[in-house]
Amino acid sequence: KIAQELSDLVSYCQATTFVGFDHSRENAKHYEMSSFAEKRAMKFCKEDHQKFIRYNKRQMSRIYPAGGRIDSSNYDPVPLWCVGSQLVALNYQTPCREMQLNQGLFQINGGCGYVLKPEFLTRDDLPFNPLGPFEVKKELKIKIISGHQLPFSNEKALKTERSLYVQLRVSGVEDDNAREKTKTVKNNGFNPVWNDELTAKLRVPELALISLNVFSGDSLLAQFTLPFYSVQQGYRSVHLQNKFSEPLPYSTLFVHVAISNE
Fold first, then answer.
1. Which residues of 113-124 are buried (b: 16+ CB within 10 A; e: fewer)?
2. What letter would DSSP give residue 140?
3. Closest Cα partner for 148 from 161, 160, 166?
4. 11-121 and 138-261 share one fold
5. In angstroms, how far is the first alpha carbon of the chain from the final one?
6. Domain over 138-261 is classified CATH 2.60.40.1400
7. Is residue 50 helix, strand or coil?
């Protein structure tokens, strides 16, 4: 038997069946939360994004991977974050880009697991359309100067030729999604030098995630992801992580970062 007094202390959300956005607006309580399969949620992001945003300003939504993902693959969480979904569940056991984005976002705020949404996703007086149109607000320039003690993908790669390059990738609203890469440096993972400047123009910087990825051919060797507003300007040493978002001791990129208003 459950003590009602104890239950009242730990129950913050009440699960409820989602009937429709109009029904929720007229009848639902702020503490009621509905769950959505990824396919249905992605459809809302494309076809009913405004209603989905208004719903997420009043209530909480939980998104979960499709049952057909028997390989534990993941879907892209960014479109759902862009409409304000609070709980976007992923398969944590899979070392993929989607999990790297998740780990990058939630490392801020002390890594406590909670990140405050932008005001335009919480306030009714600030309308927002994730499909645009937008004007460019920020320009990010990252000069990839050099790398230090970059890892190999496997033991076999120790004896094969490597072509190392760094990719700058932006994930956010569709108009901000972009990628650019440096030239390649062959057979030097100890101290490769690029001196290449990569540029990205951001329209909704509040939702942008910045990734620096080190590749050898098509193989991801190391990466680091963080929200745009966590990026610091000036000369920086970026401590890299593996595909599981675990630290790679001694593996770094030396970069120079400049951010300007457009």
1. eeeebbebbeee
2. E
3. 166
4. no
5. 61
6. no
7. helix
Report the CATH number of the 11-121 domain: 3.20.20.190
Q: What does the alpha-carbon distance between residue 165 and residue 147 come to, in Å, rounded to a whole number? A: 10
Q: Rounded distance, CA 165 to CA 185, Å?
A: 7
- Give burial (CB, 10 Å; 0-12/13-18/19+) of 256: middle
Report yes or no: 54 and 25 within 8 Å, Cβ to Cβ. Answer: yes
Q: Where are the domains of the chain?
A: 11-121, 138-261
Amino acid letter, 237? S
Of 168, 230, 204, nearest to 84 (Cα)?
Answer: 204
CA distances from 220 to 49, 150, 208 (A): 33, 11, 21
The C-alpha atoms of residue 55 and residue 16 are separated, in whole angstroms, by 14
Tens-digit pLDDT profile for residues 151-210: 887 666 665 667 899 999 999 999 999 999 999 999 888 899 999 999 999 999 999 999
Q: pLDDT, tens digit, for every residue of 168-180?
A: 999 999 999 999 9
- Check if the beta carbon of residue 30 is closer than 8 Å to that of residue 12: no
Q: The pTM is what?
A: 0.91
Is residue 185 within 8 A of residue 165, CB to CB? The reply is: yes
